[in-house]
Hints:
Helix content of chain B: 25-40%
Number of domains of chain B: 1
Radius of gyration of chain A: 54 Å
Shape of chain A: flat
Largest interface: A-B, 31 and 21 residues
Helix content of chain A: over 70%
Number of helices of chain B: 8
Number of helices of chain A: 27
Strand order of the largest sheet of chain B: 2-3-1-4-5-6
Shape of chain B: globular
Order of helices and strands of chain A: HHHHHHHHHHHHHHHHHHHHHHHHHHH
Number of strands of chain B: 6
Distance between the termini of chain A: 112 Å
Distance between the termini of chain B: 15 Å
Bound molecules: guanosine-5'-triphosphate, magnesium ion
Number of domains of chain A: 5
Oligomer: heterodimer
Largest sheet of chain A: none
Radius of gyration of chain B: 16 Å
CATH architecture of chain B: 3-Layer(aba) Sandwich
Amino acid sequence: MISSMDTNEANNMQSDLVKIQDEEEAINSNLENLLSKQSILDSKMNAICYFLGALNTVSTDSKKLSSQISHTSDLAESVSAKVRSVDMARSRASECQKRVHDLIDLQLCSQGVLNAIEEEDYEKGSALIGRFLSIDQNVLRRTAGDVGSNGSVTSVSDAVHTLEKATEKMRKLVVIRFDEAVNKDDLASVERFLKLFPLLGMHQDGIEKFGKYICMKLAVKCEKELRSSLDIAKAENRLSVAFADTLTTLLENFARVIEVNKPIIETYYGSGYLIILATLLQNECDLEVKNVILEFNKNRRIADLIQQINEYNRSMGGNMPSLIQFQKQSLNTDKPQPKDLDALILELTIMHSRVELYFRFLKRKVKSDIEASDKDANEKEQQIQRLSTILNNSDLSRKMQEILSTYLLFERHFMEESVYKAIILDTFEVGQQCSSMVDDVFYILRKCIRRSLTTQSVNGLCAVINNTASCLCNFISALKIPLKNGYPSGYTDLAYSAIQSAVQHGKLQSSDSEKARSNFINRLNNADMSTEFLETLWETVEQDIKNTFPSLSVTEQRIVDSCIAELRNVRDTLKACVNFGMTQLRSSAIKPRLNPWIDQFFNYSHILSEEELADYEAGETFIQTLIVQLDAFLSQFKNVLTPRNFDAFVSILTSDTTSRLERAIKKSSFNRLGGLILDQQIRALSSYLTGVTSWSVRDKMTRLTQIATILNLEKVEELSDYWGPDNENESPSWRLTPQEVRTLLALRIDFRIDDIKRIKL
Amino acid sequence: MEDYKFLFKIVLVGNAGVGKTCLVRRFTQGLFPPGQGATIGVDFMIKTVEVEGEKIKLQIWDTAGQERFRSITQSYYRSAHALILVYDISCQPTFDCLPDWLREIQEYANSKVLKILVGNKTDRDDREIPTQIGEEFAKQHDMYFLETSAKEAENVERLFYEIAAELIDQARSKDGTNVNKTTADAIGLGNFGTKATQNSCCSGFSSNTSQTNCENGNSRSNT
Ligand SMILES: Nc1nc2c(ncn2[C@@H]2O[C@H](COP(=O)(O)OP(=O)(O)OP(=O)(O)O)[C@@H](O)[C@H]2O)c(=O)[nH]1
Ligand SMILES: [Mg+2]
């Protein structure tokens, strides 16, 4: 810094000096500042030294703590080891205590048991033996050994010996006493000894003996009841279900035994033993039911009826008899009559449902007993399986299947015969659209299906639904016969108006063709009504099934569904039958009348002057006449056809009218005024037909309306206002091809061919 | 699931113990059931198969052979498209009952129903009914014929696939959408059982084309 200064210049030096002094001052003040901080730093330093000392203490403390902890844990471990050994000691002590108790009891038992036997105090004796048997015999032997080392082996093994002998004696005694009680039919004693068997370790014997006793009693009771059943039934005016009542009482007897004795057995024997009793009872039940069924078959002549029905069916070869054949058959008294079977069928359904309910009850009771036992899951499953096998193979189950089989045979016969009868006795009341057989047939079918539900058998229900479907197929063929023959035509206007007045006055004259005509219409209505009834039938049946069988298995549900689906197929057949009838009606009723009416169109000129137009409008126009004719024609059918059939009829009529009229138009020529009139006429026709039915016929009229629009054009060029994409959303799209449009335009004599050719379509 | 072109009902009938349930289980579940009891009433299985590129739903009704279930089982005949009448080739009485079964079929089934006579249990070596006898009987009564073993899975798949193929042909010709005649003959069962025993006891059931189809259909339905 000095070297850089010009020392020669005093001024400069002066100023430099000042600068240096300034700097010196600044440095001094800095230094002072730094020195002033020294004391703070010193005190901080001191503090740090102090804390260092404290930290040393912490370190030694924590070392101490850790050693204490490990010490504690050692202690805890040794404590827990001690606790464990205390536990073991205690359990040994209690085992010991138990053994001591056992030994004391053993002594007491052995002392008491002989006394008890002598005093015939079987309860006490059995209780003592029960106590003895509850001691683990192996432990007892070991204890005898242990005690033996102290020299008193004899007293323990003596006691055991005494008790073993007493047990044997007691077992024999209880059996003897029980048998005595049975022989004396002393129920109180029977129940008294029944409770002793399990104490003596004789569970199986006890229940078997008891079961045999009960069966014996039941056999007597059932026999008595069977003998008096018909008298009682007569007295109670229940003769028609006498055997169902007897069977019900019988099954109730058996069910009651289970119901009453289940708690007793569970209390004294424990769970899991009921199946033994149930098996014994089932054997007896099989025998008793057999007697009832034998009586039933004999009294109700079941075998005869089965044979008669089978023979009758065979003679029919599975075909529905023709009506004449059937009438002859009806006279044949060999064939069981539906009304005679009615009561019997009811009895069969009751019998079947009682057995079904009995089995359900038995299964539920025994199952719950098995579930409550202390066996493992696998063993329980096996037991339940065994129960099912026993019940399924029981004679009662076979009898039940036979009852169902008989029921189904009778029910089918009942259904078929009743349906045939309904067809034969079919009556038609004037003013009705359908004849009596539709109501009757569906009433019968519904009754039969309902009845099948009361059997409580899914198999039975399904079979009856299947039979219903085949019965309906026969019914449909009966409906179809008059439809096949067609609607009688060839009537003159006179005969035609005769029907009309007959229908109106509520009496049909019996000319053959009139009869045939009304028969035809009636069958057509029957078929239509039947589709509706059938739909209702399966809907209600589905509901009934849900109510009767709330928990069907998946397979059962599928079987049921598939059987009901069969009814749907029948409905489709019925619909086809209606359509068939409609086409018949069309060809013989609609076509022959309609064509001459429409062909009148040719008798009018469509090329008119203003004057002629005025004349034309003054007189009766073509369309007025046509509408009057159509209206008269339709009113013939309006009230005699069912609404659905009438709509279908109008629909056919509309199609035929439009196509025939279209044909006539295409064969005519028009001028401007002719086109104008045509357009008015088509509008009138459309609005008339729309008014006749509940649905719109507009769609069927579209082509014709479009034809009229074209023929009503002022000029050819005007067509572009209607034709083309611009108009598509306003009016229905064109049903006419460009070629057709040109042909139609050419019908206007006032349009030039060149103009028509030129127009773009 | 519900996408199938045809639904056919096939009903199996025949004496108790001839192996109807085993045939159905073999076909629908691919197993030979050990010691299942006699069928009670009817049982019902569904299997969808593919034949000639069409998905076919087969509703198979397994009926009980015991007499006392007859009035249940009869009610299923009417709606059947095909009836399989089974006997046991090692048990003469089951064969002797066939006329009774036919009478029943005649009485209750649709007259146009497809009927197939099946001699089951070919695996057994105590055969009592020679194949020709079965065949003769089938021919006489206008039935197709096949011998099977539910146990060894012999001809079981074939039985059902052939039935499906034949029913498809019938359905098509009824529809009016009849496939051209020559193909129909090639794949159909025109000679199902009528021409019998050329090479093996089970030949003559149908042509090779259809057999290939069946196997294809099968492998497809298994994957
Ligand atoms: N060896 C042999 N045994 C068979 C065959 N098919 C069935 N069985 C045996 O025949 C017995 C009866 O078989 P099921 O299938 O129950 O007879 P089912 O015709 O259904 O009898 P039901 O139901 O009473 O009408 C069973 O023991 C089967 O093991 C077979 O192909 N070969
Ligand atoms: Mg079976």
